[in-house]
Design brief:
about 700 residues; alpha+beta; Beta-Lactamase; 4 domains; 6-stranded antiparallel beta sheet; 21 helices; about 15% strand; Cyclic_di-GMP/3'3'-cGAMP_PDE
Length: about 700
Amino acid sequence: MNQSDTQPIRNGILILAGLLLIGGLLINAYVKKERQRDLDDWAIRLGLVAETRVEAIEGWLETQRTALGELADNASVQLYLWQLSQRTQNDDSTEPAQLTYLRNLITASAERYGLTPNDSLTTIPANLPQRRDSGLALFDDKRQPVVATGGMPETGSVFRKTIDEALQTGEVSYSALVTDSHDRVLFGIAVPVPVVVGAEADKRHGGVVFAVYNAAHSLYPLLTRGIPVKPGNESLLLLKQDSQVVYLSPIANGGIPTRKTLPLDRSRLAAAAAAQQPGQFGEFINYQGEPVLATSRMLRSLPWILTQQVTAASALLESNRHRRSLITTFSLLLFVIAAILVAAWRHGSSVRALHDADELRSKTNALQNQTELLHAVTDNTEARILLLDEQQQVLFANTLIAQSTGTEPRELTGNSLNGVLGPANAAPLLKIIEQLCDDRKTRHCTLDLTLNKNLRTFQCSLIPVDRVGKRDNAVLLVLHDITELQQAQQKHAELLRRLVATLMHVVDLHDPYSADHTARMVEVASSVGHELRLDEQQQQSLDLAASLANLGKIFVPREVLTKIEPLTEAEQVLLHRHVQFGTELLEDLDFDGPVLDTIRQKQEHMDGSGYPNHLDGENIILTARILAVANAFVALVSPRAYRHAVTIEQALDQLLREAGSRYDRQVVAALFHVAENRSDWSEWSNEPG
């Protein structure tokens, strides 16, 4: 069985595998969706439980605030507390009635609020103070205790800070959870007592009612009330403290509340996530490393967070069982569908194989026809054609290039450009190909190449081809033999040069005082043009315009050109018209470049005082500005019928004086630089006209 026979089988297997993969992905997506629905249900359930328990804590806090607030707002408490604060230290022989009243009131209120000492506490047979786990006390505005219930817990730094905050802010203040010497977790609430009406104006509060609660008897039971959501359900109070999260309530593995802390940077920890972003729901791990579902809520009255957790194993037990059932059912259905598809594919593959065989024969014939057509076009063209890949290896060569190298086209395929054309011929082409690979732009050039021991001139076109089959960045090289065309052009150019030279000679013969003026003007203009770095076409146009610039003088009478006396106005007009005569004589010729414009503007001045059109400044083309300076320079250093020649230095000085008004400063400066290196020009002033 060959590769073409096994290809449909491989394709069928790949398609079947793809269908199984897609089916598996769809099953997985559906199962995930079902699981997410279960998670959403748990988010709602845990959120409701968390909010219920938050409200229970907030309700308990509100109850305590109200009860303690009623005691603090008692007018008798405010009055007696103020009177006691006015007593001097010497008045302590007998207990004042106010103090007795306040003690009785505090004791009765403590019994009513559930803050009485626990009488079941074992009494130590020693003369030691007995500290209880709850109590109620009244402090004056100097933070000194006035009265308190028996066994009132010690007011350490945390409780004193709470009392200070209540006095300073005038608001109810809550303490942090603290542990006493018996590892009991205590919680304090301080309510400021307003100062009695008519007392000192600078005081707003005369003292503080301070209650201490055992969290195990008051707060923690609020976290377990109600029907448990699931086994493993747990409500925890947390506090974000610097870079730690503190567990304020009892945890399942034991330990003293407020003593267990874990770092906040554990993003998977449920407590850390609750402290960082209260209110979110998700799958986390608890303090024991077990997977849990958890949500959290902030308390409004305290900087605590309540997190409601349930172990993922118990919460998702039914969900996982349902998920396994779905996976099993859909997988069986998927494999049944796959079996049906395999049977259908086996039936259709034989029919498709027959159809493919017929189609292959048809495509083979079409490809053969296209190949023959390609060779018919490329083998009968006069151009030599090479198609190169990225490494300059031949992909295709036509018959003509093969004949030029003495080989067959198929023998050139796979060879390098050096191997086909030879290193000397390939070197300039490889440089151009390197540039073409950088910017992918077509290049044209003219090269002399030696093919089959014959030196010929070729017009080379290098064209980028983005893709040929499976190959990228190919290059099409087309060589047109232009040897005969170039020879004809050279012959034509030589004929034109001789014709121009003949016209120059005719002009010089017409004006004997201007002999060699045209040739010298061509030499000066060409030198200045090279100094100003004109491009090739501008330079050729300048040279040709300089050669033909004075052609119109043959229409000016010779006696006017050789006249020694000043010209009359009519003679000056006639002399000025030599530019028009010359351009009219040449206007039917098709020049490459601004030859006629250069001749037409050579007598224009920068300030607009020239002729015939009074152009000025940049309106005069650069070649005309160069020709104007060259014409004036040659005229000054050459003798004329009406004057002697001047030296080169004098001519340059005069041109410099007229720079900016008559002549272009840049062109005059270029002439200065050229004249410094042309000592032979000084001989022009010594030659007779």
